[in-house]
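Standup notes
- DV: blocked on the single-chain target, sequence here:
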Amino acid sequence: MGSTVLWVENGGIVGRGVLLDYASWAEEHGIQINCFSTSSISVSFLKEIAISQGTTLKTGDILFIRTGWTHAYEKLSAEQCQELASVKVPPALGVESSEETLRWIWNEGFAAVAGDMPSFEAWPYQNTDFWLHEWVLAGWGFPIGELFDLDRLSQECRKRNRWSFFFSSVPLKVPGGVASPPNGVAIS
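- DV (later): unblocked, structure below
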C-alpha cells in the first residue's frame, strides 16, 4: 500500500504549518537568488531565517520553504519556459543535500516538508549519500511537497508578523499511490 493512501485514510496531512521565507530573507541580506541554478540553502541559513522571523520550530510542524521559484517561473517568457523544459536535468534552487540537513529535519521532528520549488532539495542533488528524497520520503515515510504557491501566504504571514498557521491537505485516494497534487489550505 502506498503511503499516499495511508495519509488519506488517516485524515490527510493536517497540522501546524511554519513558513521560512528564504526569498525575502535573502533579499534583505543582499543575497542574489537564481532559482534556475543548482543553488543550495544550508541549515544555517534556515536557522537564521527562523530566528529573524521570530519563529519557534516545534515537533510535528509541517515545514514550508519559500524560495521565490514559482514567482520567478511565472515571470519567464514562453520561449524561456521552453528553453528550461528542454534541459535534460533542469537545475533548481533548493535545500542542501547533506547529512546536516537530514539530521536537522529529523531532530526538529517535522511531520512533512514542502516548498515552492520543483524539487525540495537543490537539483540536481549534489550528494548521492544524502539524497533527501530517498531518506525522507522512502526511508522515513513522510511527505515532501513541491511547487506550492507560497507568495500570498508569505505576504499574509509578513502582514500578521506570524509565520505559523493551520495547514490541511488530503491527497487523492489512488490505490498504490505514491504521489498526489496538493490541495492544501493554510488558515492563519
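- Follow-up: Helices lie at 3-9, 22-28, 43-53, 69-74, 78-86, 99-108, 132-139, 151-160.
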